[in-house]
Amino acid sequence: MQFKDVIGNSELKRRLINMAQSRRIGHSIMFVEQDGCGALPMALAFIQYISCQNKVSSEDSCGECPMCQKLSKMMHPDLHIVFPVNATSKSGSDKKPISDHFLTQWRNLVEANPYFLESQLYQQIKIEDKVGTISVAQAKDILTKLSLKSYEGNNKYMLIYLPERMNTEAANRLLKIVEEPSDGTYFIFVTHSPENVLGTIRSRSLMVRVHPVEIPLLSQYLQNKYSLSEQQALSYARSSNGSVGQAIVALQQSSQGVEFLSEAVKMIGCAAKKDLLGLLKNNEQIIEFGRQAQKEFCCYLQQLLRNILMYQNGLERISNATPAEVDAIESLSKVVPKKSIEGWVKAIDKTIFAIESNVNAKIAFCNLSNYLYVG
To answer: Do 166 and 287 have their domain in common?
Structure first.
């Protein structure tokens, strides 16, 4: 991955390049992003730039030397990659899976779309409706790998995608090596929720914010890559809030996205009518989504409510509604009480937390129905 392949964040690229050129690279760097905004490709481009043996320009890696070739394919022996996993139906519940078991699927996913969303990773590695975690077994594997010498006598990189999925025991095992790594060892974290990373690890990392891609730039990218009209591309860019990954998912218009809209409209409509029985009945379909999709549905529901509020306040021109959502939002904006939306969004936040905490889905959504009914 080269910097030229990463969309937007030009100022951040310059900062990273200056950091590498001055040789003042922190031993632990945490890239913070909204899901799908490009922290992973930015981190990979940074690693490749540091390692490149033949920089023909100060602005980027060459992309052709042996180091660049290996790193671009994520097959360099000194690049170690960790991401949340779980036992699959094939591995059995008694197994202790680690990232190495799924590296082929990871590489295929990144090659196809380096801006993938967390949910797409879980789909790729087929962990069904489970939440991915970084376990103690994975922490032990990290310690083992970093105790060995570099294969090629250069730097060693430990790229950890979503450290917030690391359980407390695993995080505590890694704390000492993150605090005092051996020379030439670098931890590169990519996180969506830095507040959920163990505080002692977070405090020892340089925080780097990867901002959402500017709407005009993302719109231009979508026009070029998917042959969209200017109006279509702008609509998808706005609806994604600058997340390339979200824009691509919306563009693909998967059946799940259509189903999310349908179920969200039913839920909001029942809440507006104070139809508790309808809310509870609607839960049955949502529970069938699976745990990760349930979380995505809740995030989608919040976004739809925000767009409804925008329409109610005459701000539809700057809303991020997709063309498929406009009619539903216009209709719901006439029946949803303005004063209820803030409370509903907070109730959905509690539901997301419950889902991430593995609370039974029936209980979580029954509780949400009660909030929507009362609010």
So the answer is: no
Structure tokens at 368: 């949400």
Give the Cα separation of 351 and 60 in Å (integer): 44
The number of domains in the chain is: 3
CA proximity to 97, closest of 129, 122, 146, 132: 132
Query: Would the pLDDT of 91 be above 50?
Result: yes
Same domain, 114 and 49: yes
Q: What is the mean pLDDT of residues 207-214?
A: 96
27 and 172 belong to one structural domain: yes
Domain containing 342: what range? 253-374
* DSSP secondary structure code for residue 24 in this structure: -
Phi first, then psi, for residue 132 (nearest 5°) are -70, 145
Helix (H, G, I), strand (E, B), or coil: what is residue 141?
A: helix
Residue count of the chain, please give it: 375
The answer to whether 165 and 295 have CB atoms below 8 angstroms apart is no
Cα 353 to Cα 156: distance, rounded to the nearest angstrom: 35
- Token look-up 């051996």 returns 182
Question: What's the CA dihedral at 363, 365, 369, 374 to 10 degrees?
Answer: 60
Alpha helices in 195-242 (DSSP H): 199-203, 215-226, 230-239
CA distance 93 to 57: 50
- Alpha carbon separation from 68 to 9, 16, 329, 367 (Å, rounded): 22, 17, 48, 51
CB atoms closer than 10 angstroms to residue 283: 19
Tell me: do 69 and 170 sit in the same domain.
yes
Of 105-114, 352-361, 362-371, which gets the smallest average pLDDT? 352-361
For residues 246 and 146, what is the distance between their CA atoms, to the nearest angstrom?
A: 34
Residue owning tokens 């995030």: 299
Split at pLDDT 50, 70, 90, the class of 128 is: low
Q: What's the pLDDT score for residue 260?
A: 87
* Angle of helix 215-226 versus helix 244-252 axis, rounded to 10: 40
List Cβ neighbours of 66 (8 Å cut-off, separation of 6 or more).
53
CA distances from residue 280 to 102, 276, 370 in whole angstroms, order as listed: 38, 6, 9
What's the maximum distance between 2 C-alpha atoms anywhere in the chain?
Answer: 67
